[in-house]
């Protein structure tokens, strides 16, 4: 058994949807979460910058003696997973587990992927899926406005403005006959009801946070690293805590009853 914490980081707040899935599947585990709110977004940065930021995020979590680290960020998972090279504890990113889940889920071999510009440009999901099954066709679409919509609270599935934006982005899949869609940014599950409405019941949505949480559970279980007693969660950001508190309820699906601390990430 191991009562150490699960460390998770994201460029901002979207990784809280991954935290919510970890809480769902591993309710007794402690979590240390870092949201790099002072340098968000990562999705529009160069690969070199994203890798540098990711290494600092990992170094901060290591200072908290975590037992496993989760890159709860689609962008980092897509272009900077090598930032964890040499890490002496398990590391989980969201691309591989979600790709594996999508490959197992599709019935007709047509999979869609939506994500930030950096995620889509990296073709990370496409390459992983084709590596699993070369006969699967993967269609990608960057949805740059989804993150600001979520963080601004525009998530009502009955809001014609939100539905219009979602439909505008997802229309690209109309003639692709996809039956599976990967939500390749951790903010996107919040828009699941709208995305499902637009795509229809015949399309299965893959929540990258759920896929990552299941992978974490598998690693901790197989390694005899599960907590033997209920732990606590701690949240850290690199900018003002006020925005975090306001947005966390949307992303976690509940009010945050923990303190949030601001840290200087440049020290790491």
């Amino acid at each position: 058994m191991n009562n150490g914490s699960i460390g998770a980081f994201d460029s901002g707040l979207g990784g809280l949807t991954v935290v919510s899935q970890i809480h769902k599947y591993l309710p007794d585990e402690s979590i240390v979460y870092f949201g790099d709110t002072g340098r968000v977004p990562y999705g529009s940065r160069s690969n070199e910058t994203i890798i540098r930021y990711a290494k600092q995020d990992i170094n901060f979590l290591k200072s908290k003696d975590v037992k496993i680290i989760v890159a709860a960020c689609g962008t980092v998972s897509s272009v900077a997973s090598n930032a964890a090279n040499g890490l002496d504890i398990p590391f989980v990113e969201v691309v591989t587990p979600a790709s594996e889940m999508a490959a197992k889920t599709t019935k007709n071999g047509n999979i869609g992927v939506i994500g930030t510009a950096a995620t889509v440009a990296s073709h990370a999901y496409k390459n992983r899926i084709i590596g699993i099954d070369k006969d699967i066709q993967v269609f990608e679409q960057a949805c740059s406005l989804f993150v600001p919509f979520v963080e601004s609270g525009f998530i009502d599935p009955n809001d014609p403005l939100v539905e219009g934006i979602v439909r505008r982005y997802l229309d690209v899949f109309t003639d692709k006959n996809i039956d599976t869609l990967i939500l390749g940014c951790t903010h996107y599950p919040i828009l699941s009801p709208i995305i499902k409405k637009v795509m229809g019941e015949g399309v299965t949505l893959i929540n990258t946070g759920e896929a990552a949480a299941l992978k974490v559970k598998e690693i901790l279980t197989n390694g005899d690293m599960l907590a033997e007693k209920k732990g606590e969660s701690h949240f850290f950001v690199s900018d003002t805590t006020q925005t975090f508190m306001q947005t966390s309820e949307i992303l976690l699906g509940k009010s945050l009853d923990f303190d949030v601390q601001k840290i200087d990430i440049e020290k790491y």
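The two ends are 29 Å apart (CA to CA). The first strand starts at residue 6 and ends at 10.
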